[in-house]
Queue: 3 jobs
Job 1
Amino acid sequence: MPANTTPQPKLRSDNWTLTPIPVLSPMMFLSGVFFPREQLPPLVRTLSAALPLTNAVELVRPLFMDQWPAQPLRPALVLAFTTLGAFWLALALTRRRFRGGGALVIVACYARHFCLK
């Protein structure tokens, strides 16, 4: 009996799983996760201060050494505004994506685990 040669539809998840890598990899190296930011050139250090992961590291790193962050307000505000901005962007893109079908399309897509092309 011949093998099944029917082409299977590709899932949409195949297209976006590698998308965050070009964003997350530089952010991890510039945020001070692996080495101190003081070793970065001054211009890069200034640019990396706006990264959300940099501010998360500034808040969490002292806690691992049983200390409180020296200046927790600025990193906390940057993280809060980044979170709100990302939520707003995700909400706007989701609304745009499912504008025609309403809630039934969303439920049907999640029920099948991923929408097919």
Job 2
Amino acid sequence: MTVRTLAAAALLILASSPALATRDLGTMPFSGVMTVEWIASEPSDGDVETVRYRIVGSVDGDTGDGREALLSGFDLRCVGTMELGGGLIQSDEASCRVTDRYGEGMWLDLASGQDTWSWHTLKARFGDGTGPYATVRGEGELTRAMLIPPGSTAPMGVFHGFIRWSRE
């Protein structure tokens, strides 16, 4: 065997070792608060209305057991589209950026099908991070509760769920 063949074999063995595989970081709560700003609204098919929105919020840091949650204290910024009709959210998709005070963080994609306005469940997928979050991934579900305070046109809300985190 040549040195090149031995080096290639060693690289293949290392690449398939569990130490280089995805590392499970566990499941942690993910919650926070937000405000919603309506950007545009346009009628769609029948009684369905398409609404574009912007979310500004922050991520809480309490895991409930004294530990600090991943992304604790981060800012949340989203742009999304909802289809509203028949008193329900017909669909909801948003692209979000979750960032720390230095601008590092990751993208969060949210999506759901038909659900109620006040309590709404969204599939959440985290990835494409920067800096120390470049290899962190997460998936789970978030429940978003929204309300429009009296005298306001801007909905406010809270979100909570559990995300299963991993590092590649």
Job 3
Amino acid sequence: MCGVPHSGRAPSYRVEYPSMWRAEFVTDERSFLDEEQCVVQMRWFLVRARLVIPLEKRNGDIEWGVWVSLAEPDFERMDEYWLTPGRERQPPFPGVLDSALPGYATPTAGLPVLVHTSPVGIRPTVKVTDTTHELAREQQRGITVSRHEELNCLVRAL
């Protein structure tokens, strides 16, 4: 491993920007980026979500703060219910993971996902639907302490 001890509660990692976001979009009236949502040139519609991976033999989970691209009608529907109590009863939204996560042999950006809304004030969660990908298998089965240490080292190296 990287030689740095990792202890305490399971970490959460955050992908700061959608992969397609560029500095010039700040002045583009067809684009915006805030803490929860992003629109790029009125062509791509993204939401920030939590991709949760359970830790084996430990209490807790690893959470990746990721960006997910949605179809415009789904983005609009999610936005319509953003502050509505009970929004978690909405059916999941199909989307595409927009975040490249370290530590996977096959790229994570572009993976199909389902976005599940959560109660107001809690970010939606993401479930990877391509069960052939290592990330989906880790999400279903959990990861070992050793894998957890590996991810910590990879994230610290970024």
